[in-house]
Design brief:
It is built from 20 helices and 20 strands. It is of the alpha/beta class. The chain has three domains: 3-120, Chitobiase/beta-hexosaminidase domain 2-like (Chitobiase, domain 2); 127-471, Glycosidases (TIM Barrel); 493-536 and 574-650, Alpha-glucuronidase, C-terminal domain (Alpha-d-glucuronidase, C-terminal Domain, Alpha-Beta Complex). Bound molecules: 4-O-methyl-beta-D-glucopyranuronic acid.
């Protein structure tokens, strides 16, 4: 048995690939034609499944239930045909066969019924998960920055784990949802982690070897200052010939060790990381220097656009963090090499529960753009709260920056709208927790990210439905789980920061309420509440002008409170508490109502979960029950702090006379 199908370590949750999910396939007669490493992976999967469920792997020309046929190409697409009682997967290459295999698993019994044909191809070529994992335990951020699922799967206290069995199991889960790139270390590159590029490269070789059989290529986050800190040069100036030579040599060594290495992820001039600004250069100069080192080997630079002033003076009302990425990057459109992907956070600020789509995404038609999402729940409840993010991502990916007639954000990332393809990237929420994701229901976010990256047209309900069917054997859990999970992001939005204003979280950790926690900080994340009103004026007329970074129609729709969608009102406007929303209620009454309702919805979520006792594994039941207790405590705290804050500021009583402290 190869490592990719080895049994899970004891006590580790099988997530969406439990034994029963393999039964429809594993109980049948299966033939595999083709060769190559990924075909071997599929063969290992099939051999394990038939051994467990009583099917047979045959190699003669007799009739079979499932025929898996692979050519010698390299594409990820495949066709599935069901006729004459045989289901046939045709792939032109190993990746397609692997994805076709998992497609059949996902279809379950339905894959072996009727007569039909499906052509399946990913809608994005690059579907990547970044891991903000540190090799050394960071004194503040720990083993995983913004990790809420235990330690790192890869590293343990300064070294790459000796036993990579769980990494293999993780890689298999990722392959089953179509992920084809992983970033192995934190974008904040600290001392030890920088050395993954040089003397610690053998560790990266080991990790790459575990991901490779699952069709996943690895990337490293690198420090822009590496020529100085690792190479001993006097400068990291991207236009300096010695610096270029250092990157070229270092990169050649990486490829000598890992020929299918995917490339570098770079966070530069951002939150204290070094970058080209330090040398009077811009981000195109910086990105292209690394791109040229990678080019001969077919590698890519994923260059993050998360660049803003994190040492802002809160008294300064002209600086607007929301504007920063567009201000820095849009003017550079056309200057990036073709192996640079500019990686843009989906929203202009920072993975808040609700933000508009970043205007950068529509502003760089001559640049490869990737959209970055956050699966790890930094601002959305630390994987202690049920907060299903797939509807949020779906909304952002299907947003049309130029209006109804033109392409979506997913189209832009895929190269179907304006400009060349970049991809979809997200920060992983997995760790060495027995449930992988801390909260067992947060597995649905990881699953859902992969599926949406593969096909952004899937609805969040469809994706959740797939996940439920694969994860839980009892069909009766489906209804209650949809009730509990489907709208949980909106519930979270209700009891936390209102109407797109964002933050109001406890500084540093970002869990729990602290309405003024960031109000007088240097981070550029303010709500400007006073006795009369709340919100950030980002209009062209009287505010920071951020609305002007959007193309029509949005630059105009966002500019006026009359046409701005309610859920983003306070992101774009500072309005009086008595301002009447499209919903017909005032801003302050909306704040009270949603906070009371949101907290009550958590009470109902807990009651719904209680119905599932005995129908889900006992350990899952216990863990979720415990966490729902914490979610209710936290939602109550959010409700009371936010309502009390606005009641005290505004002096406006709750129209329904509920208790505010
Ligand atoms: O949201 C912020 C996080 C940082 C993170 C940064 C980024 C890795 O608070 O922890 O750093 O975003 O995306 O680079």
């Amino acid at each position: 048995m190869n490592q990719s199908t080895a049994p899970l370590p004891h006590g580790v949750d099988p997530a969406w690939l439990p034994s029963f999910a393999l039964r429809p396939l594993g109980s049948r007669r299966i033939r595999i034609a083709g060769s190559g490493p990924l075909v071997d992976t599929v063969r290992g999967e099939v051999a394990a499944a038939v051994a467990e469920h009583g099917g047979v792997l045959v190699d003669s020309q007799e009739p079979v239930d499932l025929d898996l046929i692979c050519g010698n190409g390299g594409t990820e697409a495949f066709t599935v045909t069901r006729e004459d009682r045989t289901t046939t997967v045709h792939a032109n290459g190993g990746p397609g066969l692997l994805y076709g295999f998992h497609h059949v698993v996902r279809r379950g019994e339905a894959a072996f019924d009727g007569t039909w044909t499906e052509r399946v191809a990913p809608r994005q070529a690059i579907r990547m998960l970044d891991h903000w994992d540190n090799v050394d335990v960071h004194p503040v951020m720990g083993q995983v920055e913004r990790g809420y699922a235990g330690g790192s799967l890869f590293y343990d206290n300064g070294v790459v784990r000796a036993d990579l069995g769980r990494v293999a199991a993780y890689a298999r889960l990722l392959a089953s949802i179509g992920i084809n790139r992983v970033g192995l270390n934190n974008v904040n590159v600290h001392r030890t982690e920088a050395r993954l590029l040089t003397d610690l490269l053998p560790d990266v070789v080991r990790l790459a070897a575990v991901f490779r059989p699952q069709g996943i290529k690895v990337c490293l986050s690198v420090s822009f200052a590496a020529p100085v800190t690792l190479g001993g040069l006097a400068t990291a100036d991207p236009l300096d010939p010695e610096v270029r030579d250092w990157w070229a040599r270092t990169t050649a060594d990486v490829y000598a060790a890992i020929p299918d290495f995917a490339g570098y992820v770079v966070k530069a001039d951002s939150e204290g990381q070094p970058g080209p600004f330090g040398y009077g250069r811009d981000h195109a100069d910086g990105a292209n220097a690394l791109a040229r080192a990678l080019k001969p080997f077919g590698g890519t630079v994923f260059w993050r656009a998360f660049v803003y002033n994190h040492r802002q003076d809160w008294r300064d009302r002209t600086t607007d963090r929301a504007r920063a990425a567009h201000d820095h990057f849009a003017p550079l459109d056309g200057r990036f090499d073709d192996n640079v992907v500019v990686q843009v956070k989906a929203g202009p600020i920072d993975f808040q529960t609700r933000e508009p789509v970043s205007p950068v995404i529509a502003a760089m038609p001559s640049t490869r753009l990737a959209v970055e999402l956050q699966v790890t729940q930094e601002y959305t409840g630390h994987q202690k709260h049920v907060c299903h993010l797939v509807p949020l991502w779906r909304e952002m990916l299907s947003f049309r920056p130029w209006g109804e007639e033109e392409g979506t954000v997913a189209d832009i990332a895929a190269g179907r709208a304006s400009g060349p393809a970049g991809g979809v990237v997200a920060v992983s929420n997995a760790g060495d927790d027995p449930f992988w994701t801390g909260h067992p229901l947060a597995q649905a976010n990881l699953y859902g990210f992969g599926r949406l990256a593969w096909d952004d047209r899937l609805t969040s309900a469809e994706v959740l439905d797939e996940w439920i069917g694969l994860t839980f054997a009892d069909p009766d859990v489906r209804g209650p789980l949809h009730r509990l999970v489907d709208d949980s992001w909106r519930t979270y939005e209700k009891y936390t920061a209102p109407l797109g204003v964002g933050f109001m979280v406890r500084p540093g950790g970002h869990y729990g309420p602290d309405v003024d926690g960031y109000e007088y900080s240097p981070w550029g994340t303010y709500h400007f509440a006073d006795r009369d009103g709340v919100g950030v004026d980002r209009t062209r007329a009287t505010g920071t002008g951020f609305t002007g970074q959007f193309p029509p129609p949005w630059r105009n729709l966002y500019e006026s409170p009359e046409t701005c969608p309610d859920e983003l009102l306070l992101f774009f406007h500072h309005v009086p508490y008595g301002h009447v929303l499209h919903s017909g209620t005032t801003v302050v009454q909306h704040i009270y109502d949603t906070h009371f309702d949101g907290r009550e919805e958590v009470v109902r979520m807990a009651a719904t979960w209680a119905e599932l006792e005995g129908r889900v594994p006992a350990s899952t039941f216990r863990r979720v029950t415990e966490l729902l207790g914490e979610q209710l405590r936290s939602a109550t705290e959010w409700r009371d702090q936010v309502n009390t804050y606005f009641h005290r500021k505004s002096g406006v009583p709750d129209a329904r006379g509920r208790r505010i402290y």
